[in-house]
Amino acid sequence: MIGNSSYYLKEIEFYLQEKNLQEKFQIGQKASKISNIPEIQNIINEIIQTIMKNGGYVVVGHDAKTKILPSARVKLILEADFEIRVYRKAKQLNAKEFEAIGKVFSDLLKCDVDSFDLVLEAKKVATIINTSDLSIEQVVARILSRVLWIRFSDHNMLHLIIFILFVFVYTLRAHFSESN
User: Which InterPro entries is this protein grouped with (predicted)?
Assistant: First the structure.
């Protein structure tokens, strides 16, 4: 007869959560290694460029701004302080144990080191939005304002006025939704 079944269930649940977290890390690491193979990068870049010929899409990645779509009209870099990124990634992976959070920390640090040159190159041609202290709504407002500014700045003054009003209203909405 099992003495304390709830204890054993908690142990099993912890084991499964830990195993799931390890699998998520392993998948991310494998994808990162595969994507660093130059032949794979070239094939993926060609596919993306073919899809993007008609425009209207968002491409994410450090090298998207400089290598994949160097002529894109809107180039944005979303960045955050390192501690904030570790916190967000650990939360996304539901990492609660110190060891798992340490793994997130070391993985992000390695990623930063590996992509340092790409990020420096991209920062020369892109608009940087630091999201450390921004809500999701504020990030969306900044992205939309940049996209709309580029889109409407090519047209007449009426479009520019509409754009300014849109950004003003959206920013007010984001501000007041945080206050409540």
Answer: Cytidylate_kinase_dom (IPR011994), P-loop_NTPase (IPR027417)
